[in-house]
Amino acid sequence: MNTVKNVHSVEGRIKPAARGAGEDRREEERRLMERAKAGDGPAFDEMTKRYSEKAYSVAYQMLASHDDARDLVQDAFLEVFRTRERFNTQYRFSTWLYRILINKCINFRKREARRRMFSFTDYGSRNGGAGQQFLVSNLPSSEKNPHEVLESDELKRSIMAALDTLSERHRTVVVLFDLEGLSHRQIAEILQCPEGTVMSRLHHGRLKLKRVLSKRLAGYLDL
């Protein structure tokens, strides 16, 4: 009998486990979206502020165009706002947003036969290479040789061009996992597919990316 009393006494002194910061943030976002669903504009504005930069990063990695990325992020948020009443607050806001955004990016890429990837590349081609020389002569002072900086830019362009050779399903998981840092589970929720499918696409996407980069950067990187 004393043992039972002691157990109850101990239980009474035990405090519930503290909520993690991630859980608190998710609960806060759930409340914000509940308010947004009810027509609270400031609540939706707050969610937009929290995710606009991340959404832009995803769109840019998918499209390799600053202007197109900005346009599609705006379109995605507008669609989220228009369909906010259908949002299930038991799920992450980011999952819903990224799903809409990625679908828009994929559809956009399908509609476009070919997009210019970088304004720098376009400028150089229209000026017979003068764009590169202009950058070399106008780079800010640095310990690095200006041509080394351009070589780094060339590396970035090569990576983006290599990403562009991937199929949409492979490119999407590589961007979300390797460049944006999302987990297999988060990507699976966004794409509405099993985690095993995400891992398989990531594996095959990486293999092709490595093959393409090995050819493009022969002698530059040890891949």
The CATH architecture of the largest domain:
Orthogonal Bundle
| CA-based shape | globular
CATH topology assignment of the largest domain: Arc Repressor Mutant, subunit A
Q: What is the tally of beta strands?
A: 0
How much of the sequence lies in strands comes to: under 5%
Folded structure, characterized:
With 223 residues, this protein is mainly α. It has 2 domains: 91 residues, Orthogonal Bundle (Rna Polymerase Sigma Factor, Chain: A), CATH 1.10.1740.10; 94 residues, Arc Repressor Mutant, subunit A, CATH 1.10.10.10. Helix content is 74%, strand content 0%. The protein is globular. The chain starts with a helix and ends in a 7-residue tail after the last helix. 22% of the residues are buried.
Give a quick precis of the structure.
The chain has 223 residues and is an all-alpha fold. The chain is 74% helix and 0% strand.
What are the SSEs and their pairings?
Blueprint (H helix, E strand, L loop, with lengths): L1 H12 L7 H17 L3 H23 L2 H17 L10 H19 L7 H8 L3 H9 L7 H18 L4 H12 L4 H8 L3 H22 L7
Which key phrases capture this entry?
223 residues; mainly alpha; Rna Polymerase Sigma Factor, Chain: A; Arc Repressor Mutant, subunit A; 2 domains; 11 helices; 74% helix; disordered N terminus
